[in-house]
UniProtKB/TrEMBL annotation:
It comes from Parapedobacter pyrenivorans. InterPro entries: Amdntrnsf_FN0238 (IPR014541). This is Amidinotransferase. Pfam families: DDAH_eukar.
């Protein structure tokens, strides 16, 4: 997780992220509020014995969205690190060596795969924002959007041996949903998904794949998606106990029956992220880049 130093509304991403809303607060107030939300969120994760590696952002170059690292980097069991091509030019600056150095102090990196050259071609794939991985079953889900190039997604799936599931999804106004991870979350035995957003011609095939892979489906609606109820992540603590992580806004958008169903699988951790959600257009899942790399046995864990 990246602790922000100059978190702010990013006009470059707002052109196709309808979850962002520019407010009237001073930039210093926004940054201070975002840091408080970030620190409280990290504290809740650590209170549940979840291992969190926090890397502080750097003031220069200015990267207003650095709090969402899962878009530009992903980590895999075989020791691979993947770098992704980003739609917004100022988000490309988030690929800082300081982050990679912090990772290398704790984990082993065996190879780096770099897709960033495709930015020059206007082709983008924004990591585990653009797609959602079912690592257990080797399936990857992606909705097409200006930030998710289908050919690059298929290349990623070939390289990492994932079965691709590609579909179109729109919000209630018919606009393409910019990231798959705002409409669905895949856990080990269940999936939270906004089926309403998936176009009718693709909906049945997505449901069929989820059912055949043994997932219980917990459906959310368009309004709940706007409240970031699709932007969740299942994580494990140091003892191997699973939790479902989301923002408080997402949690409070859920109906009681949905909460009970989710809690039948995993305890829920939620934390207020209102400023981050409003100005950044992302939520809890976007803030966590899960690390599957092998641990460096010489490292003294924090």
């Amino acid at each position: 997780m990246i602790r922000p130093v100059q978190f702010a509304y990013n006009a470059q991403t707002a052109v196709n992220n309808v979850f962002q809303r520019q407010g009237i607060e001073d930039t210093v107030v926004v940054q201070d509020s975002a840091v408080r939300e970030f620190d409280a969120f990290v504290a809740k994760l650590r209170d549940n014995d979840i291992d969190v590696l926090v890397v502080p952002d750097t003031p220069m170059p200015h990267t207003p969205d650095s709090i969402f690292p899962n878009n530009w980097i992903s980590f895999h069991h075989d020791g691979s690190v993947v770098l992704y091509p980003m739609f917004a030019a100022n988000r490309r600056l988030e690929r800082k060596q300081s982050v990679l150095h912090a990772i290398e102090r704790v984990f082993l990196i065996h190879r780096r795969i770099d897709y960033t050259k495709h930015e020059a071609e206007g082709k983008f794939l924004e990591g585990t924002g653009s797609f959602v991985l079912d690592r257990k079953n080797g399936i990857a889900y992606a909705c097409r959007s200006p930030r998710t190039d289908e050919s690059l997604f298929l290349e990623f799936c070939r390289q990492f041996n994932f079965k691709p599931v590609v579909f179109d999804a729109v919000d209630e106004k018919g606009r393409a949903i910019y990231h798959t991870n705002v409409l669905m979350c895949i856990a080990d035995s269940y999936a939270v998904i906004n089926l309403e957003s998936i176009v009718e011609s693709d909906r049945l095939s997505v449901m069929k794949t989820l059912n055949e892979s043994g997932k219980s489906i917990i459906a959310i609606n368009q309004a709940q998606m706007i409240d970031f109820a699709g932007n969740m992540l299942q994580v494990e603590n140091k003892q191997g106990k699973s939790f479902l992580v989301m923002s408080s806004r997402a949690f409070h958008s859920l109906q009681l029956a949905q909460v009970r169903k989710l809690e039948s699988f995993d305890p829920i951790i939620h934390s207020p992220l209102d400023t981050i959600e409003q100005y950044g257009g992302g939520s809890a899942r976007c803030m966590m880049a899960e690390v599957y790399l092998p641990v460096n046995s010489n490292d003294q864990q924090q």
